[in-house]
Amino acid sequence: MSVNKLILGDNFEILKAMESETVDLIYLDPPFFSNRNYEVIWGDEGEVRSFRDRWAGGIDHYITWLKERVVEMHRVLKPTGSIFLHCDWHANAYIRVEILDKVFGASNFRNEIVWCYRGGGASKMDFGRRHDTIFRYGKSPQHIFNADAIRIPYQAEGMGRKDDAMWGKHKGTDKVYKPNPLGKIPEDWWLINALNANDPERIGYPTQKPTELLERIIKCASNEGDVVLDPFAGGGTTVAVADKLNRKWIGIDQSVQAIKVAELRLHRQTDLFTSIYANSYALQLHKYDYDTLRHANAFEFESWIVHQLGGTSNTRQHGDFGLDGKMPDNTPIQVKRSDNIGRNVIDNFFAAVQRSDKKLFAKNVAEKKPVGYIIAFSFGKGAVEEAARLKLKESVTIELVPVDKIVPVAKKPAVTVEVNELSRDTKGFHEIEFIAVGQSEVGIEFYSWDFAYNAEKGFRASVIIDRDGKQQAKLKAGYHNIAVKVVDNDGLEGLEVIKLKVNGMVRVE
Ligand SMILES: C[S@@+](CC[C@H](N)C(=O)[O-])C[C@H]1O[C@@H](n2cnc3c(N)ncnc32)[C@H](O)[C@@H]1O
User: Fold this and answer.
1) Cα–Cα distance measured from residue 293 to residue 318, given in angstroms and rounded to the nearest whole number
2) 73 within ligand 1 shell (Cβ under 6 A)
3) CB of 207 closer than 6 A to ligand 1?
4) How close is the Cα of 430 to the center of ligand 1, in Å?
């Protein structure tokens, strides 16, 4: 199982469920304490709920809210791990004294990093506020610090003096100081440009942090293969950089939009393969997509759903009387990855259960406990009647368990696309408008577009966040594959691919 995970949910709940001392580095960029609407980035249910949570009271409330999470972060860090907490003038003084010094211990404070950037718009009554604070604490004095991985040229970041003026014999001693060929370790103030509106890194949401900032943090405080956690993942800067630097990663966010944006970003960057069974990385949403489960690899699905029910799966794919797993008390489980299960499945299972362990069968009957469990997407009338007959006539209980009683399942949203030609120019370019309309019972969050869709490579968004589902593109004569994804409030997504022939006229094939 891979550690790489994007998890939708309140980080407090997720952190509490994580094992102790399993993470090497935590970077967190929590919402600042500003009580401003701009603090709400995504505007979906999850984020607004979290915003209200923090704002139920003043600064004390905010500090309590954050502190209980930092306590859990401290627990999940390995003794060699460190935390980088990103904040600004709104609450940095409180965060250092009231949270970090108390949870990590003042002696484990390592740096107050000042991230300086430029930007317009300042009050005429104050100095422009153009820095954020990043507190760095180790869990113990043995924390990782890879100085050589983050060295920069001596003159970098504005303060360097000429190398040759600096080095030589130290006054009054025989000691000769030489420059390190790898450069200097950066000071605790960092000049890294914030992303401007047109930066190619920009995904389309306001609090996105530059990858350069995260590169320095991840390189210095972790090694390849280590686990990096971002409990306020946002659009996934930390996890995208961690992945590029061959670290394992876990990103948590309470907003469906944030998680989906992070996912689309990872796809754009790499050939990562998503799966609920965690091959390359796992995506944990509140609900599972019916089609994905229904058509997933049968053996993987069986062992996963048995595990979700609380049992263990059989390691053998065949034999075992066709049984797929057992509960902790050894009561057998069978999984059928289909709908409308018929009567014959119940009868065959009944026979198999009796043969597989006669003693256990007799014991379960005597104690009026289920003799076995059958998991399926749905059960037909014949199966339900047969289970009822066995119970009534033979005092044998076979528990029929629909998948959606074990895990929440929903159908993914549907999407249709309207294509209109708006104009064409003399050079043969056609201006085309695309209007996508998604349908979901829980509401549509946003659309994403891939204007050069390649089924083998998968969906690589050219436009990641489009809240209205409307795009215009200038296309040349030829064939074009255009894909649109629609994401609903549960984080489930529908995909529509349009094959467009542009040749004197525009035709959807
Ligand atoms: C400032 S943004 C992080 C931006 C991120 N560093 C980036 O570069 O994209 C803060 C994020 O915290 C999320 N958030 C707020 N409260 C949360 C909670 N209780 N659990 C998980 N995520 C939360 C918000 O949805 C938002 O995406």
Assistant:
1) 21
2) no
3) yes
4) 40
Q: Is the CB of 258 under 6 A from ligand 1?
A: yes
231 alpha carbon to ligand 1 midpoint, in Å?
Answer: 7
Enumerate the β-bridge partners of residue 284.
7
Distance CA 284, CA 264 (A): 15
CB atoms within 10 A of CB 121: 5
Q: Is 94 helix (H, G, I), strand (E, B) or coil?
A: helix
pLDDT for the residue numbered 398: 97
Q: What confidence score (pLDDT) does residue 1 get?
A: 46
Question: Is 500 touching ligand 1 by the criterion CB < 6 Å?
Answer: no
CA of 222 to the centre of ligand 1 (A): 22
**Domains (range + CATH), the chain:** 5-148+190-284 (3.40.50.150), 152-185 (no CATH), 292-406 (3.40.1350), 411-508 (2.60.40.10)
DSSP annotation string for 474-508: EE-SEEEEEEEEEEETTS-EEEEEEEEEEESEEEE
Tokens of 26: 């935590």
Q: How far is the CA of 451 from the centre of ligand 1 (A)?
A: 29
Q: How deeply is 278 buried, as exposed, middle or buried, from its count of CB atoms within 10 A (0-12, 13-18, 19+)?
A: middle
237 lines ligand 1 (CB under 6 A): yes
> Does residue 235 have its Cβ closer than 6 Å to ligand 1?
yes
Give tens-digit pLDDT for 31-73: 876 655 556 677 777 777 777 766 666 788 889 999 999 999 9
Query: Does ligand 1 lie within 6 Å of residue 263's CB atom?
Result: no
Check residues 171 and 63 and name the one with the higher pLDDT. Answer: 63
Instruction: For residue 403, give the amino acid letter.
Output: V
Query: How far, CA to CA in Å, does 335 sit from each of 300, 305, 375?
Result: 11, 8, 5
* R_g of the chain, CA atoms, integer Å: 28
CA distance 99 to 103: 6
If we measure between CA atoms, which residue out of 183, 140, 208 comes closest to residue 465?
Answer: 208
Residue 396 in tokens? 């044998």
In angstroms, the CA 30 to CA 238 distance is 13
> Mean pLDDT throughout 287-303?
89
